[in-house]
């Protein structure tokens, strides 16, 4: 269970907050509320019942609080009592938090009220303080009146309740951050001093200027989960049940050390106004925060073919289904009563089965997330035994190999366990090992030598890098080194980006978009923070410094730009005669361009030769039109029961030539027109359904349909469309005799 929290935000809404300062185009209130809305958005996104949040308006037009009868609590209004935050509260706060028309209201009194509210909220019925994280946030421009005579008693109460006090000032001076407001009013300077004294008197006090706080919001908030124990039992070395004198076991607990953080999933909803008749189903899930939406529920129906049922389909219940496994192309059913035969009967266990030297282990064998095994906290004997094992592995530079079954009936896993010693923490880190079936064995030719067909080994070859290229590449790699490119607080070289600063861009980008849409629906989602995309490109300064090394590498490697592909030009090399003469050009030069026609008797060679001599897309289209007419003529001349081999041969050549020319749309237009004319009965002089079926069967069997995206990247036809194209939806008899 996550820690309970009680957070109160004191927002200064005095009339002075409606002004704009320091060149900003937004009011001081809007500027400061960026921080508050972000924090409230994070609380909403966490959706924790134990997270209590309250909001107090300082220098408000109204007085509305539990201490209003006392002196000094005027113009302080509680906009939201301490408790869970919901979308309805957020929308209500957005309407109420606006600049007021007064400058009256004491910030110190507002903090006393916040302490009073937290005390009442977090104190148990027994009179003791509950286990809460308590925080008070004050967001102010420092322009209102402030009584600093009773700061010590306030600080004492804050420390007594273990409250963290955070004061965020709009345009407050902060020398450490490097900000100082010019021409600051004297009363604001005095108020800053009072607040600094109060913060310094608190054990957990923080004082910051708004610019620094807003800058820090760019760094994603990482959720720190509570430890989750996935195994609690014995870690054994040997069979202690059979060999009690020689085997040993240690009582341990195993926790996740790393676990993938997944982004929130999206659910489907429907607008109630789009439902027919404007009525929502009574079974729909009502959305209290979005009354115009209804959750979509999915349902699965199972049907089988049944000629006697209406529509030829019969609905069956899920309980009537049985599992089946494919054995080759045959389905082998296994009844529910026999499902246990497919499962390995295992019992919970954690056993060390051997040890290996750490230099014998390859890192690519890591198969999953890391866990840590520690001794049971209340078992001193187990802690001593596990510590002995950890130090033995550490001193011998060894790893342990173990087999684990986390629960009865679970599949076993093999683990490699490494000693982990850090400060006062000792444990065994483990990652899953692959089984034999998990390992992929690939053979690749070596990069540092060439092995000829005769078995000779060549160290120098045109496909191998020479010494100059190796040196140039080494220099370039050194110039792009990130390990010392960063700067620490003292300006000394340090790592450019540590693993602690490496955040999952997708996860935090989705959270940022959800938060923005929820809190400020009319505001566009801002670009992702720089820290999220830091790894998406090299540092500009580093790339600039390495430019000379890169240029030298390009020159030594003789890198040349590859010409862009030109559609309508062949991609494969043409066969050249030994004489070196261009036979096609010699033959084509003898023919006048206007007289170049494809003949029925020699259609395929004519089409290929004439296609070689084309110089424009219009000429290609003209030749395809001629070829299509010849194909239609061949179909019409085919007798009943005759062969369509010549037809499909011409279609195959037309298809392959258009693919070579990277113009698949021309063939796709032809084959679509071909099918339409076939279905309409326009290809045969006499209407014979058997000829239609035989012809389409020949086209389908030789895969002469549409050219899809997987065959040619220039096609706009999907694989599903190409597959569906082969279906001939006509009322024709079958081929069976």
TrEMBL record:
It is found in: Chromosome, Telomere; Nucleus. Its EC number is 3.6.4.12. It is an enzyme of class 3 (hydrolase). This is ATP-dependent DNA helicase II subunit 2. Pfam families: Ku, Ku_N, Ku_PK_bind. GO terms for biological process: DNA recombination; double-strand break repair via nonhomologous end joining; telomere maintenance. Belongs to the ku80 family. Residues 313-450 form the Ku domain. Residues 267-288 are annotated as: Disordered. InterPro entries: DNA_bd_Ku70/Ku80 (IPR006164), Ku80 (IPR024193), Ku_C_sf (IPR036494), Ku_N (IPR005161), Ku_PK_bind (IPR014893), SPOC-like_C_dom_sf (IPR016194), vWFA_dom_sf (IPR036465). It catalyses: ATP + H2O = ADP + phosphate + H(+). It comes from Lachnellula occidentalis. Single-stranded DNA-dependent ATP-dependent helicase. Involved in non-homologous end joining (NHEJ) DNA double strand break repair. DNA-binding is sequence-independent but has a high affinity to nicks in double-stranded DNA and to the ends of duplex DNA. Binds to naturally occurring chromosomal ends, and therefore provides chromosomal end protection. Required also for telomere recombination to repair telomeric ends in the absence of telomerase. KU70, of the KU70/KU80 heterodimer, binds to the stem loop of TLC1, the RNA component of telomerase. Involved in telomere maintenance. Its main location: nucleus. The keyword Nucleus applies. One of its GO terms (molecular function) is hydrolase activity. Transmembrane segments: none annotated. Residues 268-285 have a biased composition (Polar residues). It comes from the Eukaryota. The gene is mus-52. GO terms for cellular component: chromosome, telomeric region; Ku70:Ku80 complex.
């Amino acid at each position: 269970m996550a820690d309970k929290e009680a957070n109160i935000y004191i927002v200064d809404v005095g009339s002075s907050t409606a002004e704009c300062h320091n060149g900003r185009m937004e009011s001081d209130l809007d500027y400061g509320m960026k921080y508050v809305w972000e924090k409230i958005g994070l609380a909403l996104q966490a959706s924790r019942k134990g997270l209590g949040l309250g909001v107090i308006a300082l220098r408000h037009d109204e007085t509305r609080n539990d201490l209003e009868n006392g002196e000094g609590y005027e113009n302080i209004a509680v906009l939201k009592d301490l408790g869970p935050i919901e979308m309805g509260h957020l929308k209500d706060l957005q309407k109420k938090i606006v600049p007021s028309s007064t400058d009256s209201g004491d910030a110190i009194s507002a903090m006393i009220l916040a302490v009073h509210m937290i005390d009442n909220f977090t104190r148990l019925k027994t009179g003791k303080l509950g286990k809460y994280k308590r925080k008070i946030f004050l967001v102010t421009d420092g322009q209102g009146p402030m009584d600093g005579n009773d700061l010590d008693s306030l600080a004492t109460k804050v420390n007594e309740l273990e409250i963290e006090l955070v004061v965020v000032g709009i345009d407050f001076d902060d020398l450490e951050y490097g900000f100082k407001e010019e021409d600051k009013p004297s009363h604001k300077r005095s108020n800053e001093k009072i607040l600094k004294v109060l913060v310094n008197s608190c054990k957990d006090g923080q004082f910051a200027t708004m610019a620094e706080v807003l800058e820090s919001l760019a760094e994603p908030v990482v959720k720190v989960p509570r430890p989750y124990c996935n195994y609690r039992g014995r870690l054994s070395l040997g069979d202690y049940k059979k060999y009690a004198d020689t085997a040993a076991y240690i009582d341990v607990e195993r926790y996740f050390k790393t676990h993938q953080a997944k982004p929130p999933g999206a659910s489907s909803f429907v607008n109630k106004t789009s439902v027919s008749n404007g009525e929502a189903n009574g079974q729909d899930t009502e959305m209290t925060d979005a009354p115009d939406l209804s959750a979509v529920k999915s349902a699965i129906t199972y049907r089988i073919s049944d000629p006697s049922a209406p529509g030829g389909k019969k609905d069956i219940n899920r309980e009537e289904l049985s599992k089946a496994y494919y054995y080759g192309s045959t389905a082998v059913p296994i009844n529910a009563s026999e499902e246990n035969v497919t499962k390995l009967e295992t019992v919970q266990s954690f056993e060390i089965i051997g040890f290996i030297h750490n230099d014998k282990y390859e890192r690519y064998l890591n198969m999953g997330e890391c866990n840590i095994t520690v001794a049971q906290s209340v078992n001193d004997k187990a802690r001593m035994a596990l510590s002995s094992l950890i130090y033995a592995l550490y001193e011998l530079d060894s790893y342990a190999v173990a087999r684990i079954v986390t629960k009865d009936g679970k599949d076993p896993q093999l683990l490699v366990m490494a000693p982990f010693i850090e400060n006062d923490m000792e444990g065994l880190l483990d990652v899953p090992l692959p089984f034999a079936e998990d390992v992929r064995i690939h053979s690749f030719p070596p990069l540092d030598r060439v092995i000829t067909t005769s078995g000779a080994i060549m160290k120098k070859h045109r496909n191998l890098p020479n010494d100059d290229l190796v040196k140039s590449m080494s220099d370039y790699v050194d110039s792009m080194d990130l390990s010392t490119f960063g700067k620490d607080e003292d300006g000394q070289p340090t790592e450019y980006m540590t693993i602690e600063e490496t955040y999952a861009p997708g996860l935090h980008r989705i959270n940022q978009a959800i938060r923005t849409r929820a809190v400020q629906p009319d505001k566009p989602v801002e670009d992702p923070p720089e820290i999220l995309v830091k790894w998406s490109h090299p540092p500009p300064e580093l790339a600039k410094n390495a430019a000379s090394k890169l240029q030298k590498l390009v020159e030594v490697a003789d890198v040349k730009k590859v010409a862009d592909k030109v559609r309508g030009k062949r991609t494969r090399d043409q066969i050249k005669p030994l004489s070196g003469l261009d036979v096609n050009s010699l033959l084509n030069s003898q023919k006048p361009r206007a007289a170049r026609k494809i003949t029925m008797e020699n259609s395929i060679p004519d089409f290929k030769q004439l296609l070689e001599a084309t110089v424009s897309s219009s000429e290609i289209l003209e030749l395809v039109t001629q070829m299509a007419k010849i194909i239609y003529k061949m179909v019409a001349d085919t007798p009943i029961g005759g062969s369509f081999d010549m037809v499909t041969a011409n279609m195959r050549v037309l298809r392959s030539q258009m693919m070579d020319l990277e113009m698949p749309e021309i063939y796709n237009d032809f084959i679509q027109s071909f099918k339409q004319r076939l279905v309409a009965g326009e290809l045969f002089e006499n209407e014979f359904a058997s000829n239609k079926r035989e012809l389409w069967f020949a086209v389908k069997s030789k895969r002469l349909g549409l050219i899809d995206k997987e065959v040619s990247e220039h096609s706009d036809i999907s694989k599903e469309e190409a597959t569906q194209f082969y279906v001939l939806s006509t009322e024709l008899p079958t081929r069976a005799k």
